[in-house]
């Protein structure tokens, strides 16, 4: 289950909405800096929805969701409960579970709802007072989309400038997200290496064998018990961590 966030955008008010106070290059540079300061993919997504509201002209709310081919989805980050409700998981066949404008993002980078009360998008948006939506493809593969959506309470809130800024912004978010993912994977690899090293040292002392023999013993036990090597090493290092 992906981690979920509720974000208070008032805590992030030092980046003014474009174009008040910052030109586009300065605003995107500041956004990129803030995104690359994040330490995990989850915190990158949290920061991205904050920035989207401040950076994309017309945006009042923002959220990021992962969408499957069958329209199942999970909301990864949101700015408030309105977005949580708008993007919340639902039965793909129901009105609450259907986002027809997101389907366009399998083949196009942007999808826009100009006025939800004119039959665009879906009834759920209009019921929440969200008149406009700007959805931007953040990541895509054959099975899953990651979508950043900015919402507005006014109809036709997102013009060509908003689309251009939104596309530039999602490029920065994607790069920062990839970097944070790599950092997290490297950190986990280092932790796993250290854990296996500690477990090997314990086995060397306990069984009076050398390092190679201790590691081989650890690998064989992992295979025999059908347990991941790192999980077995954690049990040896900290017996109280065993389920």
TrEMBL record:
Residues in ANTAR domain copies: 176-237
SMART domains: ANTAR (SM01012), GAF (SM00065)
InterPro entries the UniProt entry points to: ANTAR, CheY-like_superfamily, GAF, GAF-like_dom_sf, GAF_ANTAR, WH-like_DNA-bd_sf
One matching Pfam family: GAF_2
Top-rank lineage group of the source organism: Bacteria
Keywords annotated in UniProt: Kinase, Transcription, Transcription regulation, Transferase
Protein name: ANTAR domain-containing protein
Species per Swiss-Prot/TrEMBL record: Streptomyces pimonensis
């Amino acid at each position: 289950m992906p981690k979920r966030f509720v974000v208070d955008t008032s805590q992030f008010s030092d980046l003014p909405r474009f174009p008040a106070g910052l030109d586009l290059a300065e605003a995107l540079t500041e956004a990129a800096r803030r995104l690359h300061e994040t330490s995990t993919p989850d915190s990158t997504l949290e920061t991205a929805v904050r920035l989207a509201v401040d950076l994309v002209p017309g945006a009042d709310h923002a959220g990021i969701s992962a969408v499957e081919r069958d329209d199942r989805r999970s909301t990864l980050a949101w700015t408030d409960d309105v977005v949580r409700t708008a993007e919340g998981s639902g039965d793909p066949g129901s009105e609450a579970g259907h986002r027809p404008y997101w389907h366009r993002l399998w083949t196009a980078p942007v999808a826009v709802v100009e006025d939800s009360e004119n039959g665009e998008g879906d009834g759920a948006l209009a019921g929440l007072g969200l008149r406009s939506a700007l959805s931007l493809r953040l990541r895509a593969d054959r099975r899953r989309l990651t979508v950043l959506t900015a919402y507005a309470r006014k109809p036709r809130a997102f013009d060509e400038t908003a689309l251009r800024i939104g596309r530039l912004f999602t490029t920065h978010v994607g790069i920062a997200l990839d970097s944070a993912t790599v950092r997290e994977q490297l950190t986990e690899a280092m932790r796993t290496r250290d854990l296996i090293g500690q477990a090997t040292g314990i086995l060397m002392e306990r069984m009076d064998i050398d390092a190679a023999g201790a590691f081989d013993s650890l690998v064989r036990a992992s295979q025999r018990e059908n347990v991941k090597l790192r999980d077995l090493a954690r049990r040896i290092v900290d017996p109280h961590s065993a389920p």
